[in-house]
Amino acid sequence: MEALALERKAEQNRELRERLLQLKKERNAIILAHYYQRDEIQEVADFRGDSFLLAQKAAATDADVIVFCGVHFMGESAKILAPNKTVLVPDERAGCPMADMVNPNGLRELKAKHPDAKVVTYINSSADVKAETDICCTSSNAIKVVNSVDADEIIWCPDKNLGHYVSQFTDKKMIIWEGYCNTHDMLTVKDVVEMRAKHPNAQFVVHPECRPEVVEMADFVGSTTGILKYCKESDCKEFIVGTEDGTGYQLRLDSPDKTFHFASKFLVCPNMKVNNLKKVVRALETMQPEIYVPEDVANKARLSLERMLQVK
Ligand code: 13P
Ligand code: SF4
């Protein structure tokens, strides 16, 4: 951007931040932002986090209004966990293609074929699917959750890459759904080989939503929070990062002296980036778009989320 355009944008954002502060007070609202959100949203959030931390914050808040800056299933999970709160999202078109790869009918059919199996569903799923689920998990607790389940057979959905990764850390038989994240699945072995040649002193850190052959190449495998913690605590000064590029905001904040190279220019989730600061302000002004989950679905889905929150 040209200097003048940058200046204008900075001025606009300053005005938007002031308006947001005022609206937050008027509405008694909190802003939750996933680490994949644009910097301008992460900057104003009351809590930045991964899907697990943000679900915990939604369940525990005493604010009247939650503005959930992430994708649709995250707003839904917040509403399920905090049914008496108003949950707003900046843009209701921010969906998750992986969550859309499984539907309740398909899951019911698979359950009928494996009546002894328990269903573990990644939080990246719709409320309808969670309602058919025994226990949810996120990438930060998936192994713990699977091993906590009282069954030898697990139906795992929807992420086949995370499912493959988890299956290496359990004796349970895992029946794995064929879903995937369009963004993480885009990262290839070739991308990593090329980046390593360019940055020979860098460590490669990766999210387990990436393909198994890419995950195998990593110096560290972890959820978004796991990656952030590892990079912050490591003595290494340079990293090739195999997850969504919004994490750069927190990585640079935690370690301004370290260098982070994203492993591919395609590691950008277009759904997460649909949201911007202007839409966050507009959501609080208009109190729209609001998330609704039918009560019967929410009541069933809540059990699977609450079971996850109880796993220690
Ligand atoms: P986490 O926040 O659990 O790391 O999930 C990654 C993701 O893709 C969220 O959409
Ligand atoms: Fe869905 Fe992948 Fe985007 Fe996360 S990064 S919201 S899993 S498409």
UniProtKB/TrEMBL annotation:
Xref: SUPFAM superfamilies: NadA-like
Matches recorded under Gene3D superfamilies: NadA-like
Cofactor(s), names only, from the UniProt record: [4Fe-4S] cluster
GO cellular component terms attached to this protein's record: cytoplasm
Annotated compartments: Cytoplasm
Protein's recorded name: Quinolinate synthase
EC code(s) of this entry: 2.5.1.72
Organism for this UniProt entry: Cohnella lubricantis
GO BP terms, alphabetized: 'de novo' NAD+ biosynthetic process from L-aspartate
